[in-house]
Amino acid sequence: MFDVNWGRHWNCGGYENAELMKLEFDRITGEPKAPDAEADFIVNGPWRLTRTLRFLNYAFLVPPGEYALSGVSIKVARSISDVGYLNAKRADLIKDGNPEGGSFTVAAGEIVFIGNFFLLRIAY
């Protein structure tokens, strides 16, 4: 279980605005994934026009094991016509089998709350 705030943040990190778009997680118990393999579970944000600055709750049923954050996508805009994406992929977040983006373990029959995901507004 976790919460995500998909809302747009203004004056964030030197950009006019930024918003979290997607989170990806891999089960890292067992054989490593190929660099281009799809994540074990992907959470896309809601339709852009319905996004608000509030947390949405998510719950997934997953097999027991250790999981790691393996992908993040953030939309960033310098202006209405200068929009791009910052993407962290598996190779950025899991290096030599070490989950640098964070990990959690789930045992059989266990419920785990892994936290809140959101962009922290940093103004420059």
Describe this structure in words.
With 124 residues, the chain is mainly β. Helices cover 3% and strands 50% of the residues. The chain has one helix at 90-93; strands at 2-5, 9-12, 15-27, 41-44, 55-58, 65-79, 82-88, 94-95, 98-99, 103-106, 115-117. The strands form three sheets. Strands 2, 3, 4, 6, 7 and 10 form a six-stranded antiparallel sheet that branches. A three-stranded mixed sheet has the order 5-1-11, with no helix packed on it. Strand 6 and strand 7 (82-88) form a beta hairpin. The longest helix is centred in the C-terminal third of the chain and has 4 residues, at 90-93. It is globular. The model has no long low-confidence stretch (mean pLDDT 92).
